[in-house]
Design a protein that fits this description.
Blueprint: E1 17-22, E2 25-35, E3 39-43, E4 53-58, E5 67-77, H1 79-85, E6 90-95, H2 101-114, H3 132-136, H4 144-178
Antiparallel strand pairs: 1-2, 1-4, 2-3, 3-6, 4-5, 5-6
């Protein structure tokens, strides 16, 4: 079995639904099973491919606009696999790292509304702890691959925003013509 690699406390929202954009599809009203600083697990019968670009939109109490959190599909659990694992079907979205500061603050505010301990760091379990000699031989982190992946993700989100803005202009033009 795979080791627990979680870095952030998971919060189970009560009756929180969302809008999720994955690729060209929009999913409305999906239940958010858990939420953390690093991502979310969303219930969904039809799971998207791994590494698909995804955007999670959730409402923050006291804020009119939804919190729009970009990321990618990091884990998917089909309906068939979900039965054998006794879990709901769905997929996990890993948020872009680092989130822009305004999104980070919004997510932190939402998590604190849901659970006052949500931002506390996780204590490593015994199975996660590594012996000291192994941690010393870890090579230095090379961020170039992460930076390239983030640039691709940002470019994809910028294209999606541009497409949505064009759709908005077309819809307004149609509404104007009907008047």
């Amino acid at each position: 079995m795979k080791k627990n690699q979680r870095r952030h406390t998971r919060v189970k929202p009560k009756a929180m639904s969302s809008r999720v954009r994955v690729g060209g599809s929009l999913h409305l009203g999906l239940a958010v099973e858990n939420l953390s600083l690093g991502g979310a697990f969303v219930r969904c019968a039809q799971v998207p491919p791994l590494r698909s670009h995804a955007t999670l939109e959730v409402l923050v109490p006291g804020v009119n606009q939804p919190l729009v959190l970009p990321g990618q599909v990091a884990f998917a659990l089909s309906a068939g696999d979900a039965v054998s694992r006794k879990m709901p079907p769905g997929f996990a979205i890993e948020f872009v790292k680092p989130l822009p500061p305004h999104l980070q603050r919004g997510l932190e505010r939402l998590l604190l509304e849901l659970d006052e301990n949500a931002l506390l760091p996780l204590e490593p379990s015994e199975e996660q702890a590594e012996p000291a000699e192994r941690t010393q031989s870890v090579p230095a982190f090379d961020p170039s691959g992460e930076v390239a992946a983030l640039r691709k993700l940002v470019a994809a989100h910028e294209r999606e925003i541009e497409r949505l803005e064009k759709d908005n202009v077309r819809l307004r033009a149609l509404l104007t013509q009907r008047k």
